[in-house]
Design a protein that fits this description.
Layout (H helix, E strand, L loop, with lengths): L2 H16 L6 H11 L17 H14 L8 H13 L2 H12 L5 E4 L15 E5 L2 E8 L10 E7 L10 E7 L5 E6 L8 E12 L10 H16 L28 H5 L11 H14 L5 H29 L7 H24 L10 H11 L4 H10 L10 H12 L22
């Protein structure tokens, strides 16, 4: 029996003693989080078990197979917790990470700004020290989960008199306070996954700075590395729990067992997600309408399968290297580029398979129901959903162009574009917008 099998046996043994579907979601997540099984890849000092990413995936899969509610999902577990574990002090790990792994607090990412998207270090949101707290003013945009967040990972400029990368700090910001306004943005999918956030004299305690004053760029790069690994192709991680963490969604007081069935039914996952279930969907639709006989459709189905397999093997290679103390520079960036390519091919291929039906899409539950009845093709909505969403991943989490630049400069050693932004104080640099 290898180590991964031992982990699977251990977590299932723990579940057999502790899983009780009549617990509330909050009670169940409290037990799961404080035991270390919510985020087993975190260090033991940060409510984890110090497991590898591969072992962490096996733990998630074991929880699903057992029939229990999985760990709280969202950006808290994906980004905030591992970042705070890496850069926070002991008090911050206890204050913030416990509420994340137990689902008590949901988090959002307050990074991008209207004039500082791809040029993230050009952000202009200000945090000014005032006694025992920071006063924050500025605007953020493309904030995933902003509507349901209790806390935010905030990048703010704390010193405009040094070069732009050095004057940024990373703060934990309470979202439920006067001075924080969240406005949802309606996307072409019909959803509002993103929001813009306005900060007017918002406040954060002095000890909310993660990783030290002026060290926000380094801390942010840790968050971005976790983000790219999570968004990239080949990760293979199981989905988090179907319940939503935090105080806004209202799931914490609901019965935990009521969410287990919903988690198993999610199938292809979030809109645009390319999994085995999504690929099988395209094959099924192609067989159903006969387009599978088209050589170009068959070729692209094989190409799509090959891209997913390459991404999976690349991820396995990286795991093996890390296990032996090595690394594969730029893998997170390559994985994110691969996912963008997979989603674009999925979009184009899916719409070709659907034909004229691909021009129809329901943006609400009632519209979808009506379309299903008229067309007799209930699976078509998953394809059009994926097609509309496919434009997003090549932009969020760092555009494809940014990923190419990082690989070129940091992996291949190509020269950077000439500029003075690392020597001139931020206040003296020309501003975007």
């Amino acid at each position: 029996m290898n180590a991964s099998d031992d982990v699977t046996v251990e977590v299932k043994s723990w579940l057999s003693k502790h899983w009780e579907p009549n617990l509330t979601v909050g009670e169940w997540w409290e037990a799961l989080g404080t035991s270390g099984w919510s985020a087993p890849t975190l260090p033991e000092s940060s409510y984890g078990k110090g497991l590898s990413r591969e072992e962490g995936v096996r733990v998630q899969q074991a929880i699903v197979e057992f029939g229990a509610l999985g760990a709280p999902g969202g950006l808290g577990l994906l980004l905030a917790a591992p970042t705070i574990a890496a850069h926070g002090d002991d008090a911050q790990r206890e204050r913030y990470i416990r509420d994340i792994v137990t689902g008590r607090k949901a988090w959002c990412q307050l990074f991008s700004e209207p004039a500082a998207g791809s040029d993230l270090a050009g952000l202009q949101t200000k945090a000014v020290r005032d006694g025992d707290e920071w006063t924050v003013n500025g605007q953020k945009v493309w904030t995933s989960g902003g509507r349901i967040a209790d806390m935010g990972m905030l990048l703010a400029r704390t010193d405009p008199d040094v070069p732009k990368h050095k004057g940024i700090s990373y703060l934990a910001l309470e979202m439920h306070q006067p001075g924080v306004e969240v406005r949802p943005l309606r996307e072409m999918t019909g959803r509002s996954l993103f929001s813009e956030v306005f900060l007017v004299d918002a406040h954060a305690p002095a000890d909310a700075v993660i990783g030290g004053l002026g060290n926000g760029w380094a801390v942010a790069n840790t968050t971005l590395a976790f983000e790219r690994a999570g968004l990239g192709a080949g990760g293979g991680s199981a989905a988090g729990g179907a319940a939503t963490p935090g105080t806004v969604a209202g799931d914490l007081e609901r019965r935990a067992g009521d969410f287990v069935r919903g988690a198993a039914q999610r199938g292809a996952g979030a809109p645009g997600g390319m999994s085995d279930a999504s690929w099988n969907l395209l094959v099924e639709l192609a067989r159903e309408n006969g387009s599978v006989a088209d050589p170009s459709v068959r070729q692209d189905l094989v190409r799509l399968h090959a891209l997913n397999e390459i991404a999976r093997y690349m991820n396995m290679r990286q795991k093996a290297l890390r296990a032996s103390g090595g690394d594969l520079p730029g893998l997170g960036n390559i994985a994110k580029l691969t996912m963008s390519q997979i989603l674009r091919l999925s979009r184009d291929l899916g719409l070709r398979i659907l034909g004229p039906y691909g021009t129809l899409h329901g943006y609400t539950g009632d519209e979808r129901k009506a379309l299903d009845e008229i067309t007799g093709k209930p699976l078509a909505a998953m394809v059009t959903d994926m097609a509309l969403f496919a434009q997003g991943p090549q932009i969020y989490g760092g555009t494809d162009e940014i990923q190419h630049n990082i690989i070129g400069e940091r992996v291949l050693g190509l020269p950077r574009e000439p500029n003075d932004d690392r020597t001139i104080p931020f206040r003296d640099l020309p501003k975007n917008g």
